[in-house]
Every structure is written in C-alpha cells, then in structure tokens.
Specification:
elongated; DNA binding
C-alpha cells in the first residue's frame, strides 16, 4: 500500500487525513476493490497515532460502504467510494464541528447560520 502521511500541523483531524488519503488511493486505483488494508493497530503504530484515531477513519469508510471488515480477512476495500457518500459524511462531520464551536462560543443558532452563510458567500 502506498504510504499514508499524517501532518499534525495541517489543522485537519488525523482520522480525517487517514480517511481522505484512503479514499484517494482507492479512487486512483492504488487500492483496488478486494485489496487488504493493514490492521488498525499496525497502521496506528506506523503513523504514530492512537488506535482509536485510525479506527475512526476506517469506521467512517465502513459506514460509507467503502471498506468491509471480516475477522478472518481483515479490512478490505469493498467499493470505489461514491463522491456523494463520502462527501455527505465529511460534510456532516464538519457541520457537527462547526456547531460545537459555535455553541462553545455562546453563539445562538441564528447567528451561527448567518456566519456560515456569510463565509460561503466570500468563497
């Protein structure tokens, strides 16, 4: 498997970096359907991450139907990710993080939505 690299200074959660890089490797064919992935513990050790961090990346892709885990076979690529399934999962996670940040700031829902709409207009 092509090497996955996690940049702790990127501002992107490590589990998301693992997930996104796996999606890329699958989409470009470097990890074809049926290809085995390293065990979670091994990949976590190789990347210097916690087992839970790597497990979350794998779990997100399992929920999207991209990976499948069976006890004897381990984790394998189950399907090439559909853009909408992976994007929807990533968008839901980003929305949850934004909502938590807004709540921590004490911002009400209407102001949080307005800030988001303003940020979308600026791009």
């Amino acid at each position: 498997m092509t090497r996955i690299v996690v940049d702790p200074d990127s501002g992107v959660a490590p589990w998301r970096q693992v997930r996104d890089q796996l999606v890329h490797l699958i989409r470009v064919g470097e990890l074809p359907v049926g290809a085995p992935l390293p065990p979670i513990r091994q990949l976590a050790r190789d990347l210097g991450l916690s087992v839970g961090t790597v497990a979350r990346g794998y779990r997100e892709l399992e929920l999207a139907g991209v990976l499948a885990t069976a006890r004897r076979r381990g984790t394998v690529v189950a399907a090439v990710p559909r853009t909408d399934a992976v994007t929807a999962a990533a968008l839901a996670e980003a929305a949850a993080e934004y909502a938590a940040s807004a709540k921590a700031l004490g911002v009400d829902r209407q102001d949080a939505v307005q800030a988001l709409l303003h940020a979308c207009r600026d791009e």
